[in-house]
């Protein structure tokens, strides 16, 4: 198939999923055309069957902001015509579904539009009155719609009063890359005295409640010698760093910023903390599980579909840092339990979310939509 993929090229989860999906599909012989305003961060080397088309954002004094939706639609039209695309698969509804449907209309319906809903396009941004009716239209007018968790499907249907089918295709991980191989050198760097290591990866947005990670760490550290590693960057980072200073934790906290080889760092840690206010899936939790890390997270959104409470980690109510900390301490104090959780986390990632299980589901979905 010839497939166009539209995504945000940044560090966000939806862009990572879209890029990894494109790479896997290319590997399976499909011709993949990424259409984005910058090259996706994970598309960092030449790969056969993959092409990149930049959406150029035209500036004109009259426009206070670049007109992305129209520019993207025009680029989709151009690529679809010239490369004879069968499908345009957009990740994150806003405004990608709108652009794709506009392009499809201009192309006299000669292309199928598939929209994958990822999270805040539905649960946060899409709820803004300035977006809601357009998001709803984008979902109803797409030829096929997928959501990354059952939770996200149900929420979409009820919140936007959706009448159509939405297929759940969960996110996936390359379990051959994200695998439990301890990097002792790295571990020694973070924890020179063999302290335990807590880790958190995110884009430091408010919804991630990163300050709670620090609060959890503060409690754990009083009982068990430990270090905290942060990966990622974003609007809340300054505040989180300040909190570490105020609580006099700074010497035990390592801020690595954005990182490429996530798996190496994940593997050198002991537990993953994800205290999000909302999480439609939690790709970072899945990647950690694949590396054999138990995950302590909040019981929200799609997280219970990924993390099994009492088997691969623990789930708590949002903001209950005491309970989160007590679970971390429990795992650190009970070596057998820790190892069991670690094995079960890895096993769940391999059995349910490996790329070789999930990518064919997208191929089947494409075939179904093309035959409709
Ligand atoms: O980061 C993004 O690009 C999208 C982001 C969001 O804010 O919607 O992440 C969502 O998509 C990821 C990939 O499917 C999921 O793993 C995240 O759980 C989800 N984030 C939220 O729901 C907050």
Describe the structure.
- The protein has helices at 13-27, 68-83, 93-106, 120-123, 132-141, 150-160, 184-190, 210-223, 237-246, 262-267, 283-290, 303-306, 321-333, 335-353, 355-371, and strands at 2-6, 31-36, 50-54, 87-91, 112-117, 144-147, 167-168, 196-201, 226-231, 253-255, 271-274, 295-298, 313-316.
- With 372 residues, it is of the alpha/beta class.
- It has 2 domains: 2-171 and 355-371, Glycogen Phosphorylase B (Rossmann fold, 3-Layer(aba) Sandwich), CATH 3.40.50; 184-353, Rossmann fold, CATH 3.40.50.2000.
- The strands form 2 sheets. Strands 3-2-1-4-5-6-7 form a 7-stranded parallel β-sheet, sandwiched between helices.
- Helix 3 (93-106) crosses helix 5.
- It is globular and about 65 Å long.
- The structure holds ligand GMT.
- The site of ligand GMT has 20 residues, from helix 1 and helix 4.
- One of its GO terms (molecular function) is glycosyltransferase activity.
- Residues 186-348 form the Glycosyl transferase family domain.
- Residues 11-176 form the Glycosyltransferase subfamily 4-like N-terminal domain.
- One of its GO terms (biological process) is bacillithiol biosynthetic process.
Task: Just give the CATH class of the largest domain.
Answer: Alpha Beta
Q: How do the helices and strands follow one another from N- to C-terminus?
A: EHEEHEHEHHEHEHEHEHEHEHEHEHHH
Which CATH architecture of the largest domain would you pick?
3-Layer(aba) Sandwich
Counting DSSP E segments of at least 2 residues, the number of strands comes to: 13
Q: Output the CATH topology of the largest domain.
A: Rossmann fold
Our count of domains comes out at: 2
The portion of residues forming beta strands comes to 15-25%
Derived from helix and strand composition plus strand pairing, the structural class reads: alpha/beta
Domain Glycosyltransferase subfamily 4-like N-terminal: 11-176
Organism: Candidatus Chryseopegocella kryptomonas
Protein name: N-acetyl-alpha-D-glucosaminyl L-malate synthase BshA
GO molecular function: glycosyltransferase activity
